[in-house]
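Weekly modeling sync, notes
Attendees: S.R. (lead), two postdocs, one rotation student

Agenda item 3: backlog of single-chain predictions. S.R. asked that every request posted to the team notebook include the full sequence so nobody has to chase files. The rotation student volunteered to paste the first one in as an example of the format we agreed on. Action items at the bottom.

Example entry:
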Amino acid sequence: MDICVVHLVWVEAPESALHSFLESYSRRDAGAQHRLLVVWNGFQDPDRFAAVRRIAAAVDHDDLELGARELDLTAYRLAADACEEESVCVVNSYSTILHDGWLAALASNLAQPDVGLVGATGSYESPLSGARLPLRLLRAGRYPPFPNPHIRTNAFMLRRELMLSLSWPRATTKRSAWELESGVNGLTRQVQARGLEALVVGRDRYGYAPERWRESGTFRVEGQPNLLISDNRTRQYDEAAPRLRRKLERLAWGSGERPTGP
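Predicted structure, as returned to the notebook:
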């Protein structure tokens, strides 16, 4: 399977985030051949751009400079246009690879029959949950109610042909990006509507179906012991005080409800 790994670098992200990703990328054996494409998003200051380019020079990669600052999901779609590989694996600006064989684990699960989308984490969260009535009314029809299983787009992988065929409007606001990730016509639901599965993949290399995402031990559960690729949200959970941690866990998983179909 030919793979393009896309790493997005936001101009707002601290240089420490890029250092963290590159250090983990260099230290952890991907387990699968691939090309690394670094997407530079929003860099206008030539001195700052030159500085971060020097950091990235530590690893073999290709560059894609976006002409305008884009939200993550739009940047990923533009990167897919620039790829020629069979599959695209996206890791966001705050990702850190935790284990050897991370790419092979994602790729082997994606290669299974009837699997269309894999990711390092998933959630049942719905923006309707816990929102005040006016906000729920505003969001009604845009998001499924809880449980709303969706692959989180911090680290995910799918075939490029499928990626390019999905309805993927340009996200211009955080709200439109949330809708594309977890809305009624979000990426996971579009994939499932085509009769394909969406799996969460853990460090154990096992692909978990939506009804088992909580028990996969990858996102907002104590210790997150099976997490393959961390991000700012998984670290937020790890570092949170017990009360906030319980709240975050309830948002992701509720009180044990099982997900419904698309």
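Discussion: group reviewed the output briefly. The mean pLDDT is 93.
Action items: rotation student to repeat for the remaining queue; S.R. to check formatting next week.
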